[in-house]
C-alpha cells in the first residue's frame, strides 16, 4: 500500500514534465532506497528522455576532451587553471556550472542546492545539459571537464548526449586526511565545505567515483597523478600528460 501512495504523490511531477522535475523524478525512482518497482519505472522514464536527445552539434568538431577526477580537495580546480595557462584548454567545472545554476533562480535551483548540501550527485540530465550548453557556446575544441563524471550514470549520460569519449582522464590521487584539511581550510564560502558534508562527499567519492575511475583505467585512458606536494610540483607530474598530445594526432 505504501508503494502506491508514493506513486500517487509523484504523479503531479510526471504530468508537469519539465526537464528538471523529470530528472529529479528519475533520480528518486532509480535510487536504491526507492520503494517503487524499479525496473518497470526505469523503462518508462528513460523512454520519456529519449525524445529529448538530439544529435549534438559538438560531434562536428574535432574535440579533445579531458575528464579531471579526484576527491573533494584533491586539487582538480587548481591544476586545471595551470593546464589552461600552459596548454590553452577551456576549463569547465561541473560543480561551478551547478553553483551558477543554483543562484540563477532556475526551476532546478532548489533541487541542486539540496543535493550539493547533502554531498550527493545531481541528476545526470541536468549536469550534462549544462556542460553541453557551455561546450557549444565556446569556440575551442580542447575541454577540461573538472569534477565529472561522478558516477557510472553520469558517464553514460555524457556518452549518450554529447556522443564523445574523453581522450584523457586525469585522476588526482590524494590521501583522505589531506583532502579534508584542504577543504576545511579553503574558505571559499561554499555550502558544502564543512565537516559534515565533506564526510558525505567522501562516502560518495568512494562508492560512485571510484567505479568510473576504474572503468577508464581498464580502457587505458587513466593518468593517475600523485596529488601531494606543492602546486608546481604536482603540475610537473601533469605537464607530460598533455605535452605528449601537443604534437600528436590531435
Ligand atoms: N556535483 C554534481 N555533479 C557533478 C559535479 C558536482 O552533483 O558533475 C555536485 C556534488 O554535490 C558535489 C558538488 O557539486 O559534491 C561540488 O562539486 P565540485 O566538483 O565543485 O567539488 P569537489 O567535491 O570536487 O570539491
Ligand atoms: Mg573543484
Q: How does this structure look, described?
A:
- The protein is an alpha/beta fold and 250 residues long.
- It folds into two domains: 42 residues; 160 residues, 3-Layer(aba) Sandwich (Rossmann fold).
- The chain is built from eleven helices and five strands; from the N terminus they run αααβαβαααβαβααβα.
- The chain has a five-stranded parallel beta sheet with strand order 2-3-1-4-5, sandwiched between helices.
- α2 runs antiparallel to α3 and α7 packs across α8.
- The longest helix is centred in the last third of the chain and has 24 residues.
- 32% of the residues are buried.
- The N terminus is likely disordered.
- Bound molecules: uridine-5'-diphosphate and magnesium ion (MG).
- Magnesium ion binds next to α4.
- GO terms for molecular function: AMP kinase activity; ATP binding.
- One of its GO terms (biological process) is pyrimidine nucleotide biosynthetic process.
Show the helix and strand layout.
Layout: H1 2-16, H2 19-30, H3 38-50, E1 64-70, H4 76-87, E2 90-93, H5 94-102, H6 109-117, H7 124-137, E3 142-146, H8 152-162, E4 168-173, H9 176-186, H10 195-218, E5 222-226, H11 231-246
Parallel strand pairs: 1-3, 1-4, 2-3, 4-5
The structure holds uridine-5'-diphosphate and magnesium ion.
Uridine-5'-diphosphate is lined by residues 72-73, 76, 93-95, 98, 115-116, 119-122, 127, 147-148, 150, 154, 192, 201.
Family: Belongs to the adenylate kinase family.
InterPro entries: Adenylat/UMP-CMP_kin (IPR000850), Adenylat_kinase_CS (IPR033690), P-loop_NTPase (IPR027417), UMP_CMP_kinase (IPR006266)
Keywords: ATP-binding, Cytoplasm, Kinase, Nucleotide-binding, Nucleus, Pyrimidine biosynthesis, Transferase
Amino acid at each position: 500500500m505504501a508503494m502506491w501512495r508514493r506513486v500517487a504523490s509523484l504523479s503531479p511531477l510526471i504530468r508537469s514534465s519539465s526537464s528538471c522535475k523529470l530528472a529529479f523524478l528519475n533520480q528518486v525512482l532509480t535510487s536504491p532506497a526507492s520503494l517503487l518497482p524499479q525496473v518497470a519505472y526505469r523503462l518508462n522514464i528513460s523512454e520519456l528522455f529519449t525524445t529529448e536527445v538530439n544529435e549534438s552539434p559538438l560531434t562536428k568538431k574535432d574535440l579533445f576532451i579531458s575528464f579531471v577526477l579526484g576527491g573533494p580537495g584533491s586539487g582538480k580546480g587548481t591544476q586545471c587553471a595551470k593546464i589552461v595557462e600552459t596548454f590553452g584548454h577551456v576549463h569547465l567545472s561541473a560543480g561551478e556550472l551547478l553553483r551558477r545554476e543554483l543562484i540563477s533562480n532556475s526551476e532546478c535551483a532548489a533541487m541542486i542546492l539540496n543535493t550539493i548540501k547533502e554531498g550527493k550527485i545531481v541528476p545526470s540530465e541536468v549536469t550534462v545539459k549544462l556542460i553541453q550548453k557551455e561546450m557549444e557556446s565556446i569556440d575551442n575544441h580542447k575541454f577540461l571537464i573538472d569534477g565529472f563524471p561522478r558516477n557510472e550514470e553520469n558517464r553514460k549520460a555524457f556518452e549518450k548526449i554529447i556522443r564523445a569519449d574523453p581522450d584523457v582522464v586525469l585522476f588526482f590521487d590524494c590521501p583522505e586526511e589531506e583532502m579534508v584539511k584542504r577543504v576545511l581550510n579553503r574558505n571559499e564560502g561554499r555550502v558544502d565545505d564543512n565537516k559534515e558534508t565533506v564526510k558525505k562527499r567522501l562516502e560518495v567519492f568512494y562508492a560512485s567515483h571510484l567505479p568510473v575511475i576504474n572503468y577508464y583505467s581498464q580502457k587505458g585512458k587513466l593518468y593517475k597523478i600523485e596529488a601531494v606536494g606543492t602546486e608546481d610540483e604536482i603540475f610537473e607530474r601533469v605537464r607530460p600528460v598533455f605535452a605528449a598530445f601537443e604534437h600528436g594526432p590531435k
